[in-house]
Amino acid sequence: MDHDKSIGITEMRKRKFAHQVDVCVSTDRNAIADSYFNNYSDNLSYEEAFEDLFNGKYILDLIKAIWGPETPYRLLDCGSANGLTLRQFDKLGIEAWGIENNAHIHSKTPEGWRGRNLLGDVLKMPFENGSFEFAYVTCLPYLPEEKIDQALKELFRVCRVGLLFQGVTTDMTEEVIEDYMLFRGLRTFWTYSEWSDAFVRNGFKLAVSNPALLDEIWRIEQETDEDDWNWYPNKESMRYSFFSKP
Length: 246
What we know:
The structure is a single chain. The protein has 246 residues and is α/β, with parallel strands linked by helices. It has helices at residues 3-16, 35-38, 46-53, 56-67, 84-91, 103-106, 148-158, 174-180, 192-201, 211-224, 235-238; strands at 74-78, 95-100, 117-119, 132-137, 159-165, 205-206, 242-244. It has a seven-stranded mixed β-sheet, with helices on both faces. Strand 4 (132-137), helix 7 (148-158) and strand 5 (159-165) form a beta-alpha-beta unit. The longest helix has 14 residues, at 3-16. The mean pLDDT is 94.
């Protein structure tokens, strides 16, 4: 996708969903506001909506298809909220850790997971180099554009094998943006290809190039998604969500 077209899609979507833009941005504009988690989906809080919206097996199936590891392995959830994802991952045999910068939602972490769900900043993480085989990343679009490269360098540092980028993009389907109010809290409005460019310039490489592998992860997506519309606009866009370290 060329740069001019990317700008066109982004501006068109920002205008169409203007009622979502700048909603749930914190007063210092460096984080998601507490209200984001209090009314997360369908007038439900994050805790109330979690079980219907998060599927740890889906993440595990994608990792297995792309990189082929056997459990157990270590995974870092960047944007881990109150750590409920860690419990799901643990049941699937994954040693998961989390990092979350919103103190309000982090304070709701169950006692048993407080040792692994850290209140911190993805721009400067308290982990040694190569601490995790994989990273599951949702938080990046909530950072200002000027901080994205720093965050990606940190992710490159702590990750040893691969990264799943599950953040909001401006060329996702209109139905999913509207239904989940996905532009709330966003600071960086980029397309899939623009995010891909950012990952690559910070050392990562695309993990999915084989057409057969792309078909397989699209199959996993289609079999998991129970809605009437697609999260991804097309199969090709999934290619720009998975990155390996060289």
